[in-house]
Design goal:
CATH class of the domain at 1-118 and 286-404: Alpha Beta
Bound molecules: NADP nicotinamide-adenine-dinucleotide phosphate, magnesium ion
Number of helices: 14
Helix content: 40-55%
Strand order of the largest sheet: 4-2-5-16-15-6-7-14-12-13
CATH superfamily of the domain at 1-118 and 286-404: Isopropylmalate Dehydrogenase
CATH topology of the domain at 1-118 and 286-404: Isopropylmalate Dehydrogenase
Distance between the termini: 9 Å
CATH architecture of the domain at 1-118 and 286-404: 3-Layer(aba) Sandwich
Length: 404
């Protein structure tokens, strides 16, 4: 066998939790380290280590990503009340993805991996739909309160000279209630808009954007206006040259059009819309296990991951010694995406070529009829076979070796 492929610059490796942590190690052992001299700066973002370091490890990993330019991340637990007891946590640590996004101020692009034999639940969808999720602010950086009956809630803004502007939120005259404060910044919305316009030009696809500007006449309308101003000033002629369109509509109308469409465009979403719609789109395309995700910062830093979570239900089976059949495709594509980007930036074509071959071997395995349980129930191939988590990776290795 030929020498192992070398990596000039480290890749930031962010390990994670539960079933995806198990898969993470298997991917490295079976599909990566036999071929590459893996050069990573390792950060353990597993919940145990985050708790030990008071979540400093998450911040360190994001800063390392800024330094080296490329990261690959495993899915991680976002703690809730039940996790507090399960892991005996000091605090309910914030979502690592939220923390990393806030530090990198990036935009998340999610696209499904399409394979022959798996028809989307919406059979009209022929091409991928890439969802661009604004990764800053709104409810992910909110302040919330429970309000006692008899209270009055107001929005108060104090300007730099100490002058206050007040708006009534609600007079709670008829009992208890809740309030929420959210924000965004023109700078972040602007870099979101530019990231989307640039990505659309890169992959030569139309860009759709939608908000609820008819109801939210200041907050959502501001998103619409910033997108429009930047498009008119900086991108209109480039889009014309590339033969692509920028299309704005109301979020309700966008959802209806997406369902009727055949795919093949980028759908820019506000933070919450992107969170929810990307799960809907991923599920309709087949399985969450086939959805890739990349966070791109305005200064060109990339963080690759799978769109799904830590697949807790499978992990509990795994802990009991039961066999699992968990789909590792999105996690494999997180690695290949990161290795390709590393190779492009370092100008090491053999690394790019390896990543391409690994992607090809992965798709080929499924198209040969060998797949995990989530795809098995969706596939219309006649010779299909369901395999367990580890055997799926071994089947990919067989095909990868043929390509090497
Ligand atoms: P999840 O881990 O995505 O899993 C939800 C269900 O989707 C699974 O039970 C499984 O369905 C199916 N599924 C997802 N990925 C799959 C795969 N690769 N192969 C096969 N089936 C797959 O979401 P969750 O259960 O809501 O969340 C679990 C944990 O992940 C939570 O602690 C959450 O905080 C965390 N999370 C992390 C991220 C991230 O790090 N980016 C994102 C989302 C959630 P069946 O059980 O029916 O087989
Ligand atoms: Mg989500």
């Amino acid at each position: 066998m030929a020498d192992k492929i070398k990596m000039l610059t480290p890749l930031v490796e962010m390990d994670g939790d539960e079933m995806t942590r198990v898969i993470w190690q298997m991917i490295k052992d079976i599909l990566l380290t036999p071929y590459i001299e893996l050069n990573t700066e390792y950060y353990d973002l597993g919940l145990v280590r985050r708790n030990e370091t008071n979540d400093q490890i998450t911040i360190d990993s994001a800063n390392a990503t800024k330094k080296y330019g490329v990261a690959v991340k495993c899915a991680t637990i976002t703690p809730n009340a039940q996790r507090m007891t399960e892991y005996n946590l000091k605090e309910m640590w914030k979502s690592p993805n939220g923390t990393i996004r806030a530090i990198l101020d990036g935009t998340v692009f999610r696209a499904p991996i399409i394979v022959k034999g798996i028809t989307p639940l919406l059979p009209g969808w022929k091409k991928p739909i890439t969802i661009a999720r604004h990764a800053y602010g709104d409810i992910y950086k909110n302040t919330e309160m429970k309000v006692k009956g008899g209270s009055k809630a107001e929005l108060v803004v104090t300007d730099e000279n100490g002058n206050e502007t007040r708006e009534l939120i609600h007079n709670f005259t008829k009992g208890d209630g809740i309030i929420q404060g959210v924000h965004n910044t023109d700078a972040s919305i602007g870099s979101f808009a530019r990231a989307c316009f640039n990505f659309a030009l890169d992959i030569k696809q139309d860009l759709w954007f939608a908000t609820k500007d008819t109801i939210s006449k200041k907050y959502d309308h501001n998103f619409k206006d910033i997108f429009n101003d930047i498009f008119e000033a900086e991108y209109k002629s480039k889009f014309e040259e590339a033969g692509i369109e920028y299309f704005y509509t109301l979020i309700d109308d966008a959802v209806a059009r997406v369902v009727r469409s055949e795919g093949g465009y980028i759908w820019a979403c506000k933070n919450y819309d992107g969170d929810v719609m990307s799960d809907m789109v991923a599920t309709a395309f087949g399985s969450l296990g086939m959805m890739t995700s990349v966070l791109v910062s305005p200064d060109g830093v990339y963080e690759y991951e799978a769109a799904h979570g830590t697949v807790t239900r499978h992990y509990y089976k795994h802990l009991k010694g039961e066999e699992t059949s968990t789909n590792s495709v999105a996690t494999i594509f997180a690695w290949t995406g990161a290795l390709k980007k590393r190779g492009e930036l370092d100008n090491t074509p053999d690394l790019v070529e390896f990543a391409d071959k690994l992607e090809k071997a992965t798709v080929q395995t499924i198209e040969d009829g060998v797949m995990t349980g989530d795809l098995y129930i969706l596939s219309n191939l006649e010779n299909k076979k369901k395999v367990n988590t580890e055997d799926f990776l071994k089947e990919i290795k067989v095909r990868l070796d043929n390509l090497m």
